[in-house]
Amino acid sequence: MSLQKARAHKIADVLIEALPYIQRFRGKTMVIKYGGNAMVDDALKHGFARDVVLMKLVGVNPVIVHGGGPQIGSLLGRLGKDSVFVQGMRVTDSDTMDVVEMVLGGLVNKEIVNLLNQHGGAAVGLTGKDGELIRARKLILRRDAPELLEPEIIDLGHVGEVQSIDVRVVNLLVQGDFIPVIAPIGVGEDGRSYNINADLVAGKLAEVLQAEKLLLLTNTAGLLDAQGELISDLDVGRVDELVRQGVIRGGMLPKIRCAVEAVQAGVRTAHIIDGRVEHAVMLDMFTDEGVGTMIRRR
Questions:
Q1: What per-residue string of b and e applies to 203-241 under the rule 16 or more CB within 10 Å gives b?
Q2: How does pLDDT run across 138-172, given as a tens digit for each residue?
Q3: Whole-prediction pTM value?
């Protein structure tokens, strides 16, 4: 059956619009932080996998870093262990860290790898412990309060931050036409495992790889202004002003900071995109409008 004329023109327009982006991004590295609704909704999961495989087939090099907080919380609950958070970070004792490694490095990581492979990709799962990919150090959390004579040090257990990244294993996989899928677990100099925020890992990885783009999938449309309208294009020079105005706040603040640091370190652009939109990655990569907020230096 032949295409109806109107539909045929629409498809042709989409392909023509995508062509310059495919040409521009061919051979470039894109680091994608995968999380939120896109990881739990079946249609979104399959759409994400198809997007990533398409990117690889047209010559783009996607590198995926994933989260898994809800899945960790779910398994902890089934094991009868409460989840405790301080300033949005999970307190991670040794038993909890075992669950984190099981969920992130096993269940979630291998599900993503399997999805990509089902849709024609060649994905390989890693944690930051493989090939000494992510060297971590313990995150020190300080709380200041007027009633305290000195800052309070809060022990979050096995919660870490990135000390350094060695991308040799990632480069080997990319050169072999594989899609790396990375769980944000690092290892300290003492051999201990550390759970690290996936946004931070994605940002640091994008910096070291000198990626063309950093894409952070979220459960929001992007950064909204004081009137609730989407800010589609944000210069890094405006960020401090928007923080003072209260436009950037709450959970959006660390994402914006992560994106700004990546751009200032040489990543061309960072994007906070709406993972609730089916094919959000492809729409952001290969169309003029995109589906979120782009952060860049002018």
A1: bbbbbbbebbbbbbbbebbbbeeeeeeebeebebeebee
A2: 988 766 545 544 555 677 889 999 999 999 999 99
A3: 0.90
